Each structure stands twice: as structure tokens, then as C-alpha cells.
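Dear colleagues,

For the upcoming journal club I promised to circulate an example of a predicted protein-ligand complex. I picked one with flavin-adenine dinucleotide because it came up in last month's discussion. The inputs are reproduced below in full, followed by the predicted structure.
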Amino acid sequence: MPAVTQFAPKQTANVAIIGGGVIGLAIARALALRGVRDVSIIERACLGSEASFAAAGMLAPQAEADSIDDFFHLACQSRDMYPAFAAALYEETGTDIELDTTGTLYLAFTQHDQEELENRYNWQTHAGLSVEKLTGTQTRDLEPCVAESVSGALRFPLDFQVENRRLLSALANSAQKLGVKIVTETNVESLRIEGDRVIGIETTSGFVSCTKVVVAAGSWTSFLRVATDHTPAVPHIEPVRGQMVCFDSKPQLTRHVIYSPRGYLVPRRDGRLLAGSTSEIAGFAKHVTAGGIGSILRHAIEIAPTISSLPIVDFWAGLRPRAADGLPVLGPCDEIDGLFYATGHYRNGILLAPLTGDLMAQAVIEEVVSPMLAPFNPNRFDLVSVR
Ligand SMILES: Cc1cc2nc3c(=O)[nH]c(=O)nc-3n(C[C@H](O)[C@H](O)[C@H](O)COP(=O)(O)OP(=O)(O)OC[C@H]3O[C@@H](n4cnc5c(N)ncnc54)[C@H](O)[C@@H]3O)c2cc1C
């Protein structure tokens, strides 16, 4: 990851991006690729050290969807950008983000699970989406590790996965090569507003004057204040803790990403096998718990019983940024010129990064908001008045 840069006193930026997770980085790169100069990312710790680092890297909108809606369209469009996105990042940085196009399985164990899968299969085939129905035997022929108790599965050939930590590194290197200024170990404490306009940000390294600010602060979004009166200027974003367990699995146990109704497995190219996850309201406590790890292990072994003999080599937890309705918060603030939000990506920030980068760059540069972003407009929430 790029080294620490400090702001000089009386620093200016054209666009300041608050937060150096996958979303802040993707937006910075997209702005720089479109020729915007003086883009700065201000990150209070190290780049990509929060939710974006903790994630499993699944790009699986079809496996998770129960119906077609605006979010599904957004998610599929972003997923479909990944092959070109990965190739471009490789070209720009030499980093392979390990986009794995094997596909995703969703398992059924019970009659109820089977009915759920049948429904998903029916509406997705009706909508012309790629999905295959497998019997239990066909599933085990494809992935012999799958438990005998599995009665069938859906295979989503276009639901991929990516090594999110390599993605972060590629985005950071690309942004830096394109001239983005990356400032780490610097907390943004508040936004400075004058009249109806943002004029800068107050940081632990001093004031930074800028005409445009993008809030990409993930679970910490709601801590940002307005310098003058300390009133919140942002929608409420809640952290939802997710724990993960990592096994050493050489040779790799599965080629596909495998979901059950209770958990998932993600095989990495280097032999790590990730198992997830939990979904907990636990404030900003980022530790793993015995209960959380216990349930992940149980659900992983239910999918593939041989997991019980694999060495556990790592575990961690991260905080998914969730808005009140669980949908992303994307676009300009109606009340304050120059202020934009790209937060609340909840369970899908890795999946949504390429499209978020493009659409937010367009909104910032052209001040044109794509119709795709309309359902995710920040102004759907009652933002607290900032004056
Ligand atoms: C266990 C787990 C599994 C997941 N699996 C998947 C998956 O398979 N697929 C998928 O698409 N998504 C997944 N997600 C969700 C995904 O990780 C998030 O949606 C995504 O990382 C959000 O990115 P972000 O940049 O908004 O937030 P973050 O990565 O949290 O980054 C926000 C950054 O802002 C910085 N910051 C905050 N406040 C300030 C401030 N005041 N000043 C300066 N910097 C600040 C933080 O330090 C942080 O670096 C998973 C998440 C978890 C926890």
C-alpha cells in the first residue's frame, strides 16, 4: 500500500474523499482516470484496513436475490464490469486481483430449501438470467466435498469472486500512479460549510480547503460533524459485525464459492479457504467471539464435512456499513452544494465498487446523477439540518 503522506498547512484539494476503503479508492481512481486533478483521499488509519479488508470478495447478486429490483440491477451491472475492471487494474499496476470466474453454488438440504431454490430458479430463468439446477448427485460430481445430506443446488455461472485484499492494493497503486494524493493516519473531524456550500474539511493535520467532498467513511460516516455547530450532516449508518474463519486447504477443497442457507465457503487461489459469516449488531466492537466462530464452523462443516480436519489459520471480524433501509447511499446532498455520499454498501461494497466509482465520478464531475442512482439518493433520509 502507498506510504503515508501528511497534509502541509493551508492545503487545498479539488476533491477530498473521506475514507480509503474500497469505495473511496474506486471513486478516487475513477475521478483521476477522467482527468480530475488534485484528488485527495484522507484515511484515518491505513488504506483498506476495515470492512473492505475483512470481506469475502463474493460477487454474487444472483445467488442472494429473491426478486428483481433496482438494487439487483445495480449489483448485476457492477458484477458484469469486473472482467474489464480486473484487466484494467492489471494493466495499470501489474496486480492480478484474482477474479475467479468458476461460479457459485447455492445448496439445499431440506424440502423448504429446495422450494426456495425452485422459486429462485423460476424467476431467474424467466428473466433470462444464467442459472442451472443440479441434483444432489450432480452437485457432488461437481464438488465432491459437498455433504451427502445436500439434496440439490443452483449454480450461478456468472456469480464470481475476487481477492478483495489484492483489489485494495491494485486500486491504491492505480490511484497513486494517476496522481491521487493519499493521506493516511489523518482523521477527518468535520465538514466546513459556508452558506449552502462545502468549503473544506477539518482534519487532525489541519484544515483542507476544497470545493467538493465525497463521504466514503463506511461504518463511521455518522461521526462526521459540521465544524461550526457540531450538528450531524450525514445519514445514520450502523455497523453490522461479520466474523470470518480461514482454513488452510491445500489442495483446495472446492473450486466454486458455495453458499448454504446458513453460511458460505470461498476458496482462494493460494489455498486459503474462507468461511463466513455472522451478522451482528455489536456497536463498533470488532473482535471475534466464541459464539460467532462456533456457528461459522458448524455451518461450514454442514456444507463440507471434511472441513472438520482442516487447520484453522486465521480469523477476523469487520463492520459492514448499513443504512436504515439496508441500501447504499449514493449521490449529492440536496442541502449542501459540493457534498456527496458514497456509503452504506452493507454486504456488497466489493461487488458494487466498480460501478460506484464510475457513477460517483460522473456525479462529481458533471453534476449529472445517473438514473441508476436515483433509488439510492441520500436525500431519501431526513438529513438533519446542518445550520
Ligand atoms: C465479514 C464480511 C464479509 C463481507 N463479504 C463481502 C462480499 O463477499 N462481497 C461484497 O461485495 N461485500 C462484502 N462485505 C461488505 C464490504 O466489505 C463492504 O460493503 C465494503 O468494504 C464497504 O467499503 P467502504 O469503503 O464503504 O468501507 P470501509 O472498508 O470500512 O472503509 C471506510 C474507511 O473510512 C475510514 N474512515 C472512517 N471515518 C473516517 C474519518 N472521519 N476520517 C478519515 N477516514 C475515515 C475508515 O478508517 C475506513 O478505512 C463483507 C463485509 C464483511 C465485514
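Two points we might discuss: The CA atoms of residues 101 and 160 lie 5 Å apart. The chain has nine helices and 19 strands.

See you all on Thursday,
B. R.
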